[in-house]
Amino acid sequence: MTATDSGRAAATPAVPAEGPADRRADLRQLIRYALVGGSGVVLDLVTFLLLYNVLGLNEQVANAISTSLGITNNFVLNALFTFDKRDRLLVRFLRFYAVGLTGIALTYVLFRIFSDGLGADPNLVKAGSLPLVLAVQFVLNRKWSFA
Fold first, then answer.
1. Which positions ≥6 away from 134 have C-beta within 8 Å?
2. pLDDT tens digits for 113-140?
3. Over the Cα atoms of the chain, what is R_g?
């Protein structure tokens, strides 16, 4: 709409609604993110189990190391396959790692509550934290790290 002779302002064009193709692309991206996340989860969990159960590291130290390996793995794979972003890799990695730190912090809180406070097995707490951490991190990475 254009301005009329009476001086009314032009209307802003409507934002097009998301169509089926957009929803399919979003779903494919989420599936790729989940598959990449799955590889990171396996790497994270196996590393945690080895560091905590075999080497006897403190669960918080083992968690920080294992999560860092998972974050790095996931960044590389997400940059290449999920979000197809190869520009500003250092900035994106730092953002991705900052998001990853939210996972470390969230898991830390869960360890304090369930393992330290309630006596739950740290292995179960770690495994149980992964789906929640994955969901929070997907939203943050999509909106910030790979925006």
1. 34, 37, 41
2. 999 999 999 989 988 988 888 788 888 9
3. 21
**pLDDT tens readout for residues 75-108:** 999 999 888 888 889 999 999 999 988 888 888 8
Cα dihedral value 136, 98, 93, 138, nearest 10: 0
Please give the Cα distance from 75 to 89 (Å, whole number).
Answer: 9
| Tokens encoding 1 | 């709409």
CA angle, corner 17, sides to 12 and 20, nearest 5? 160
Give CA angle at 81 (16, 48), nearest 5°: 120
- Separation between Cα atoms, residue 31 and residue 9, nearest integer Å: 44
* Contact yes or no for 96/75 (Cβ under 8 A): yes
pTM (two decimals) = 0.65
Collapsing DSSP to helix, strand or coil, 136 comes out as helix
DSSP collapsed to 3 states, 26-70: HHHHHHHHHHHHHHHHHHHHHHHHHHHHHCCCCHHHHHHHHHHHH
- Return the structure tokens found at 133: 């951490």
Single-letter residue type at 124: L
